[in-house]
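STRUCTURE:
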């Protein structure tokens, strides 16, 4: 669950949480560059985010997926593929 506090657009880096390795000190995140293709989408999401939003994917959509991920079976129950396919289709 990517938080805005983990995204450094000015520095061109972000920290990605790694849930399955969180129990190993120093392995709980991975550093990833903000690729040129991703930057405009992150900038737009930041501009559209409500003030004080913690998560990059916020609002009702983010809340729904975070809630689903916390159920037994975790992300298996979150149905990310269907939602992502709809987003890609709408984006063209």
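SEQUENCE:
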């Amino acid at each position: 669950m990517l938080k805005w506090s983990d995204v450094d657009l000015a520095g061109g880096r972000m920290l990605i949480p790694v849930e399955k390795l969180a129990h190993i000190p120093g392995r709980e995140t991975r550093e990833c560059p903000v690729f040129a293709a991703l930057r405009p989408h992150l900038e737009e999401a930041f501009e559209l985010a409500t003030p004080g939003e913690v998560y990059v994917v916020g609002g009702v959509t983010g809340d729904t997926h975070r809630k689903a991920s916390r159920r037994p079976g975790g992300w298996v129950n979150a149905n990310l593929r269907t939602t992502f396919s709809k987003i890609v289709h709408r984006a063209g």
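REMARK: Residues 80-91 form the longest helix (12 residues).
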